[in-house]
Amino acid sequence: IRDVTFEQLRGIEVGTEAWGTARIPELAEVFELLAPTSLVLNVEVKNGPVLYQGIEDAVIAAHHASGMAERLVYSSFNPLPLVALREREPSVSIAPLYEEALVDPWAYSLHMGASAAHPYYLTLGLPGMIEGFAAAGVAVRAWTVNAEADMRALIVAGIDTIITDDPAAAI
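-> structure tokens emitted (171 positions)
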């Protein structure tokens, strides 16, 4: 992707047979679509291992123009763009994404100014994880939970949000 322009990407049809085809939208177009709703949107910032110079400034500009700034959450596997977003706009909501188990992940989140974390859901099965987040006041939004049994177990365990590829199953 790093070697093509946005216009070239925009020309690619994406989608599935079930949902139909679509074009890749600009971030501002996504915000425009969702602004009239009450939905909260997680925006994953992809900046690494290939670094995109100026991405944080572009995201903040779109954030300010969004009409839904209070309903936007920015996440990334790379903590550096999250910290950079907070430096540019202290009110943005950020949440680190991670896949492997971390020692005290709530402390990791709080250290960068995040009030939430987006762990891979299987890491939450380790002893004390969900309780540690709760004690630290850090919201847990687990990804990518697609099996209904896993969704139910996580809800019972007390997580705050499920990130899924199957919203119908989550309802």
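The CA atoms of residues 11 and 81 lie 27 Å apart.
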